[in-house]
Amino acid sequence: MITILVVADSFDHFRTPIETYLQRLGSVVSLMKITPQTRGDPQTIRERETVRIIDFLQKHPRLTPVLLDEMGESMDTRAFHAFLRHWGIHAQKLCLIVGGAYGVSRATITEHAASLKTLRLSDMTLPHALSLLVLLEQVYRSQQIEKNTGYHHE
Fold first, then answer.
1. Which one of 28, 46, 111, 130 has the minimum C-beta count within 10 Å?
2. What is the pLDDT of residue 91?
3. Domain contains 152
4. Mind listing the pLDDT tens digit for each residue in 46-62?
5. In what order do the strands lie in the sheet with 2-7?
6. Total domains in the fold of the chain
7. C-alpha 6: how far from its chain's center?
8. Is residue 3 pLDDT above 80, yes or no?
9. What is the CATH number of the domain that holds 86?
């Protein structure tokens, strides 16, 4: 089971493909949303949203948090599949975190999750709904690699 925690209230024109991948993944993925902060300067918004992410993680201590961040480790699809498989084999429940529009306060989140792993989806900046869509597709692709369905080909 993978929990995806996203700071978003709507997914705009990405709604249909996001819902399609969520249906395909079924019980493999649980999507949890944190409503974005709308008031304050970017630093204040980032800090408040990070605190809400930490609150969620503290309420779910069995989840292993993985932050999607532009400074994170880059992985190709096969490496991402191996990463997910590794955690699944060890019966760890992952929480893949997509922060808000201004990102996540690294100082605040690492203070509460010292062993936090970070992954990068792209070298480019992506809108958060698109990041979620890319993430869902890669989780689905990993699932199909595991099942050897032919969905992923090289």
1. 111
2. 64
3. no
4. 999 999 999 999 999 88
5. 29-34, 2-7, 93-98, 63-74, 117-120
6. 1
7. 7
8. yes
9. 3.40.1280.10
* Token pair listed for 46: 């980032």
Element (H, E) at 32: strand 29-34
Pair of tokens at residue 14: 């990405």
Question: Is 79 a domain residue?
Answer: yes
Q: Which of 66, 82, 78 is nearest to 119 (CA)?
A: 66
Determine the structural domain holding residue 10 and report its residue range.
Answer: 2-147
The set of residues, in sequence order, having a beta carbon less than 8 Å from that of 152 and lying 6+ positions away, is 77, 141, 144, 145
**Residue 153: inside a domain, yes or no?**
no
Q: Is residue 65 part of a domain?
A: yes
Task: With both helix axes pointing from N to C terminus, report the angle between 128-147 and 77-89 in degrees, rounded to the nearest 10.
Answer: 70
128: amino acid identity, one letter: H
What tens digit of pLDDT does each residue of 10-40 get?
887 899 999 999 999 999 999 999 999 888 9
